[in-house]
Amino acid sequence: MNGIITSANNEPRASRITFHGELFEVHLDDGRILSVPLDWYPRLERATAKQREHFEWLGKGLAMHWPDIDEDISVEGLLRGLRAPRSKAYLEGWSKETLRWRAEIEARDRAKRTPLRAPSKKAKVKH
Prior knowledge:
extended; alpha+beta; three-stranded antiparallel beta sheet; NE0471 N-terminal domain-like
């Protein structure tokens, strides 16, 4: 009997990243090397060499995260040819007005939350 093969077991994972001029290469654990134009990811393109080298693996190589420039790139996205968005928020970061607005919403949400409490011992449970 053949076993079931799930996509989680077969997903290619990155094992190494290198930068060469206008390109970066993502080396996959199955032997493939993806060569990607840096201009597909403007934050990465504008980053310094030090910022590019400072990244974290996510999901044991399913994706990469560059904390200094707030960039996340998945292997699946690279394989599908997905480029970074060209929105103003992506390219320039959130405006001060948007950040203030988001902080106000989060503060209101926090104020509405109540701490979780265990039921009192006096409470009667109906069966």
